């Protein structure tokens, strides 16, 4: 408690020069309030008086947040609209209405019942999925926070009941329930630290500071009589701007973004804060950045609508032919049909009104041929997709043991879309990284330290070993002794080989993954330059803004730092023996241990100035006075910034340090250069005097004066080394990205982080590599907001885009790779209509794209541009509220079940616990689901065309009478029982290859991206197969049965015998066809396929044995009519074989002469050639990789090319030298 009070008294604002602080005003002057007037600035908030906002015009939205697609009122109309948006459902709705009239050839319930069942089942699924979203909303809205009630008492209240004007108290590590105006904090000067990772993806803590006027509101009692008024801007999505005034104690104070705490950001490193609610619910900036939950449909489903339209055209065409034929028959042949009583004709058989009869018959024909349109298709697809989703949910290989979270298909509408993804748009923090930094390596005085390998190095070394073996280089060009050298070329500076484990394992330390005994336990004193090593450690321990906290359990200090990098530096300094233990208002204290004996010396360093880090400066410096009175400037920052500020005598280690930085970058590590400078008392005093004037100045040039002042002192530095920190990627991220790249997918990273951080992560996950050309598109500084200045900025950006496009197109090196890097400010212009497609054209030609400093709205806009501009399937993946927009905008949204809330998961279509599971979700489940659904739909249309056209042929054969050749029960059973279960088995269990093969041959995924199994050529092929089958089934049966005796007694077959025989042939043909289509059989498929055929015979046998009043003309048809007749069995066999013969010929031709990738793999596995010849299998795996320029495989390929070129040069030099020796006088 004592330490907490001491810490709270720190006025941390003194640490910041370039932070969120305003300059001190001169006596008698005040900050000028904002001019709040006009449209967009109408909001008025009465602080601590929420009751004032219960009536219009001050009645604002509640804090209740909903992400559901429907509510009780809108569910039925919106859901029905979605269902009848499908062409088939709309047709059957019309058909169900027409079936009520006497003209229908079927019972009305045979049309209405299937429609109600199909639509009802789909609506129930939609309701269930939306109910899950609702329950997530309930959980969020039920969170509690402390709200001021009255008389200085704060009580817990649910978030959804927080109102505009409420004063709330938020404790450390809690989320802000709404957008708040910061009034005070546990620190004396109103400072607080905020983590905005959920909003912009940044891991660095933001510093917020309250107004000086409200600092006295520092405890609960002080709010007893607090009253104030805020006039500010209306709700808007801009996260980085805020304009308003606070009217308090008869004074008006201007407000800016540094006083605003946004909903879904988290309080860090601060015990508590008080704030007043300004925006609630959907008025908050994070919700303003979100979009309405869209209704998504897969590309296959949209294509299916066009197929339905095609079949509708076919249906109308044959119905018109049928009605025309009926009118012809009525007018010219009906008078000759004595049995129809032409002397007393009915309306539909009157030759005088043939046109009327034809028009009325058109309705009958439309209903009769309706079996061309498969209504059961939608039900079957829904059932199949639910089963597929359950397989995704139950996949143990996508179950995260650490968190206990499985994968979840939150909607089953998009299963097949997973197999057609072209571009992945990913967040960084929490998605690719786990927001943990490990100090891994360092370069001190020109020597590289740290023998432990990064994840990227380990993955690349492993891949290099495989590739070298595949190319035969390990056996042909290198000896066992030289293999170590091959690996060593990956990082030639290393004194040891790549190490996975240390010889002396120690307990893991958070933030510290360094292993090298040369620096541990005081061994650094025996190094050649111990003074430089000492200075290096002191820079780590002193140059920061962190606060130490003693962990009573371990006895070690932990650090609350603004960034994970800073915390890892302090952890490293502590482990090296330089422990930062205390901070006061003007000093930092370091416990220094110089030897393994453990002797500790506590030293005080007085902090004179701190020049904090900004994205513009890219460096941080602290000026301190040590115990000897020496003034030191300690600096750390980006190498490019530090190197240009070095003194002539400070470049002693520049060469080796630069080399080490390059190697660290190639290993995917984040690097900073460290330097220092000794200052004279006079020089410092003169500089400090000028700098303090700049800090207290008032005017628009204050920031420029501060920058100039910092530049004056941050010069003539002496380089002492560099750090290499591993931004800990989530487990398996490099391997996953590499596999996705081999599958032909493109990956964009959209992050709110700084450009430097984004580039470092690009190297870490192998989206960037050494040798890849980086195209950085940035905007020039804009002076003012005039149209001319904006036009100049746009022209500059357009010029950069044009030059970059030309550079990419003119590149002749086939192995050249380009990476596009762009920031959010520039994106604001490039996403405008007159420039966005040029930006997209450049981005598409680049191997990787990284967008940094982007807002949630920009993430959604970029996703929309890629989706609409390329016309390809996009997938967005993220874990925070700032990713909701792009997750909803993409064709497929995937949420990471992270530790920072469930907003992304709530808005997603699929959720996984780790990014690495995306590999299996797409490459395995996506591939399977796409092929299953595509084959299933094609087969469905095939069987319905084969069945439905036989009705048309028979009607034409019988004079367009409108008579069905099949019994009504046959028609009902065809789609519901006899052919539905095998097709469901195809959609649920089919596998062209196993999951292991999918992962070993990632290029198989391109079958879905290229849509090889559901393009129009394949669809029309299946339709033609259906037409052919219908012709064979009808005319071959008629040819066999029509003109000869059917029984031994000489009797011919009647209509029911012909119809039952034809139907038997259909059942056999379509089930044998689906058996030939399948590649993977289990007992389930066998039972369902052959069981459907057996069920047909069982049904006919039982139905025909029923009393005559029930069975009608079908009475005893199987056992007395069909079974005894050999012609029935011969016709069934002949028709079935003839029907499937073209398909068998086609697949035989394709497999022998033009096999697809999976055909070759199936053959290799079937004949077990992968076991007999492992080299063949490895070679086939290598061929099955899509050519890629990202991922560690691309990095390894580049390294192998380098080694080969180096070897060839060496051999050419040797041969040249040999030739010279051969002709030299000495050799003679």
Automatic annotation (TrEMBL):
Residues 905-1155 form the P-type ATPase C-terminal domain. Residues 45-112 form the P-type ATPase N-terminal domain. The active site is at residue 427. Belongs to the cation transport ATPase (P-type) (TC 3.A.3) family. Type IV subfamily. This is Phospholipid-transporting ATPase. Keywords: ATP-binding, Isopeptide bond, Magnesium, Membrane, Metal-binding, Nucleotide-binding, Translocase, Transmembrane, Transmembrane helix, Ubl conjugation. GO terms for cellular component: membrane. The keyword Oxidoreductase does not apply. It catalyses: ATP + H2O + phospholipidSide 1 = ADP + phosphate + phospholipidSide 2. Mg(2+) binds at residues 427, 429, 879, 883.
């Amino acid at each position: 408690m004592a330490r907490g009070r001491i810490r709270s008294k720190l006025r941390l604002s003194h640490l910041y020069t370039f932070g969120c602080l305003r300059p001190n005003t001169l006596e008698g002057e005040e900050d000028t309030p904002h001019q709040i007037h006009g449209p967009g600035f109408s909001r008025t908030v009465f602080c601590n008086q929420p009751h004032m906002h219960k009536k219009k015009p001050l009645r604002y939205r509640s804090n209740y947040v909903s992400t559901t697609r429907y509510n009780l009122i809108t569910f039925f109309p919106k859901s029905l609209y979605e269902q009848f948006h499908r062409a088939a459902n709309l047709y059957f709705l019309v058909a169900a209405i027409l079936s009520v009239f006497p003209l229908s050839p079927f019972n009305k319930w045979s049309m209405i019942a299937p429609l109600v069942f199909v639509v009802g089942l789909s609506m129930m699924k939609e309701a269930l999925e939306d109910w899950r979203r609702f329950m997530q909303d309930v959980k969020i809205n039920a969170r509690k926070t402390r709200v001021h009630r009255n008389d200085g008492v704060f009580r817990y209240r649910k978030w959804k009941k927080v109102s505009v004007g409420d004063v709330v108290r938020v404790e450390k590590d809690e989320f802000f329930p709404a957008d708040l105006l910061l009034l005070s904090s546990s620190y004396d000067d109103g400072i607080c630290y905020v983590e905005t990772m959920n909003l912009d993806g940044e891991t660095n803590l933001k510093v917020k500071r309250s107004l000086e006027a409200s600092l006295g509101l520092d405890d609960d009692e002080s709010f007893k009589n607090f009253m104030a008024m805020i006039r500010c801007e209306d709700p808007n999505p801009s996260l980085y701007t805020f304009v308003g005034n606070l009217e308090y104690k008869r004074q008006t104070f201007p407000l800016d973004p540094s006083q605003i705490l946004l909903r879904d950001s988290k309080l860090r490193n601060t015990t508590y804060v008080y704030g007043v609610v300004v925006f609630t619910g959907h008025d908050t900036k994070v919700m303003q950045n979100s979009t309405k939950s869209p209704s998504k449909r897969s590309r296959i489903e949209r294509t299916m609508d066009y197929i339905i339209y095609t079949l509708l055209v076919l249906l109308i065409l044959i119905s018109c032919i049928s009605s025309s034929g009926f009118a012809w028959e009525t007018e010219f042949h009906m008078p000759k049909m004595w049995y129809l009583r032409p002397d007393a004709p009915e309306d539909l058989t009157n030759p005088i009104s043939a046109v009327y009869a034809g028009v009325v018959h058109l309705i009958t024909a439309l209903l009769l041929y309706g079996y061309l349109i498969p209504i059961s298709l939608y039900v079957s697809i829904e059932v199949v997709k639910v089963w597929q989703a359950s397989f995704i949910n139950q996949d143990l290989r996508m179950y995260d043991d650490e968190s206990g979270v499985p994968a979840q298909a939150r909607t089953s509408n998009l299963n097949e879309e997973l197999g057609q993804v072209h571009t992945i748009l990913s967040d960084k923090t929490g998605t690719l990284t786990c927001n943990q930094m490990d100090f891994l390596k360092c370069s001190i005085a020109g020597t590289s330290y740290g023998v432990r390998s990064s994840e990227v190095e380990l993955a690349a070394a492993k891949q290099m070993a495989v590739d070298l073996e595949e190319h035969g280089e390990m056996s042909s060009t290198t000896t066992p002794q030289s293999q170590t050298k091959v690996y060593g070329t990956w990082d030639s500076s290393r004194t040891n080989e790549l190490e996975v484990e240390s010889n002396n394992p120690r307990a893991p330390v958070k933030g510290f993954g360094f292993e090298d005994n040369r620096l541990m336990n005081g061994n650094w004193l025996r190094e050649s330059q111990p003074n430089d090593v000492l200075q290096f450690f002191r820079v780590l321990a002193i140059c920061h803004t962190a606060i130490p906290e003693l962990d009573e359990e371990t006895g070690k200090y932990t650090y609350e730092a603004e960034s994970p990098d800073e915390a890892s530096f302090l952890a490293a300094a502590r482990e090296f023996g330089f422990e930062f233990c205390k901070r006061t208002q003007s000093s930092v204290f370091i416990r220094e241990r110089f030897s393994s004996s453990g002797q500790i010396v506590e030293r005080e360093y007085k902090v004179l100035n701190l020049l904090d880090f900004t994205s513009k400066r890219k460096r941080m410096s602290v000026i301190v006075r040590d115990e000897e009175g020496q003034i030191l400037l300690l600096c750390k920052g980006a190498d490019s910034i530090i190197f240009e500020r070095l003194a002539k005598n400070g470049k002693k280690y520049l060469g080796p340090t630069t080399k080490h930085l390059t190697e660290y970058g190639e290993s995917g590590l984040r690097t900073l250069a460290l330097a220092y400078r000794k200052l004279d008392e006079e020089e410092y005093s003169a500089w400090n005097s000028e700098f303090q004037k700049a800090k207290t100045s008032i005017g628009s040039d204050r920031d420029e004066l501060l920058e100039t002042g910092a530049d004056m002192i941050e010069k003539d530095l002496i380089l002492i080394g560099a750090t290499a920190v591993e931004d800990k990627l989530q487990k398996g991220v490099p391997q996953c990205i590499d596999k996705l790249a081999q599958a032909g997918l493109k990956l964009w990273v959209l992050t709110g982080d700084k450009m430097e951080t984004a580039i470092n992560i690009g190297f870490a996950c192998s989206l960037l590599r050494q040798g890849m050309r980086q195209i950085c598109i940035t905007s020039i500084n804009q002076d003012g907001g005039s149209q001319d200045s904006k036009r100049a900025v746009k022209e500059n950006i357009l010029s950069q885009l044009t030059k970059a496009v030309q550079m990419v197109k003119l590149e002749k090196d086939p192995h050249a790779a380009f990476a596009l890097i762009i920031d959010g400010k520039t994106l604001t212009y490039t996403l405008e209509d007159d420039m966005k497609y040029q930006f997209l054209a450049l981005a598409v030609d680049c191997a990787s794209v990284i967008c940094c400093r982007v807002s949630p709205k920009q993430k959604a806009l970029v996703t929309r541009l890629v989706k609409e501009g390329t016309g390809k399937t996009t997938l967005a993946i993220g874990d925070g509220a700032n990713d909701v927009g792009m997750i909803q905008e993409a064709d497929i949204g995937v949420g990471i079940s992270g530790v920072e809330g469930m907003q992304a998961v709530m808005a997603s279509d699929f959720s996984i616990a780790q990014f690495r599971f995306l590999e299996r979700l797409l490459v395995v489940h996506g591939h399977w689901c796409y092929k299953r659904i595509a084959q299933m739909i094609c087969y469905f249309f095939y069987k319905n065309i084969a069945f439905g056209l036989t009705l048309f042929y028979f009607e034409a054969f019988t004079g367009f009478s409108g008579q069905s050749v099949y019994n009504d029960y046959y028609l009902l059973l065809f789609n519901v029982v006899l052919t539905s279960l095998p097709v469901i088995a195809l959609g649920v269990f089919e596998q062209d290859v196993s999951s292991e093969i999918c992962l070993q041959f990632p290029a198989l995924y391109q079958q879905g991206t290229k849509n090889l199994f559901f393009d129009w050529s394949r669809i029309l092929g299946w339709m033609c197969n259906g037409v052919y089958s219908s012709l064979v089934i009808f005319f071959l049966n008629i040819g066999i049965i029509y003109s000869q005796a059917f029984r031994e007694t000489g009797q011919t077959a009647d209509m029911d015998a012909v119809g039952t025989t034809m139907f038997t042939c259909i059942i056999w043909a379509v089930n044998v066809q689906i058996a030939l289509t399948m590649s993977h059989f289990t007992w389930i498929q066998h039972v369902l396929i052959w069981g459907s055929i057996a069920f047909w015979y069982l049904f006919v046998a039982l139905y025909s044995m029923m009393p005559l009043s029930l069975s009608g003309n079908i009475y005893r048809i199987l056992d007395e009519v069909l079974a005894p007749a050999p012609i029935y069995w011969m016709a069934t066999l002949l028709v079935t074989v003839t029907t499937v013969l073209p398909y068998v010929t086609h697949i035989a031709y394709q497999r022998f002469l033009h096999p697809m990738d999976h055909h070759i793999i199936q053959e290799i596995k079937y004949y077990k050639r992968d076991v007999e010849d492992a080299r063949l299998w490895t070679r086939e795996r290598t061929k099955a990789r899509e050519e890629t320029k990202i991922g560690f495989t691309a990095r390894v390929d580049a390294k192998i090319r380098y080694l080969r070129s180096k070897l060839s040069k060496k051999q050419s030099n040797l041969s040249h030298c040999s030739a010279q020796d051969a002709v030299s006088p000495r050799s003679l």
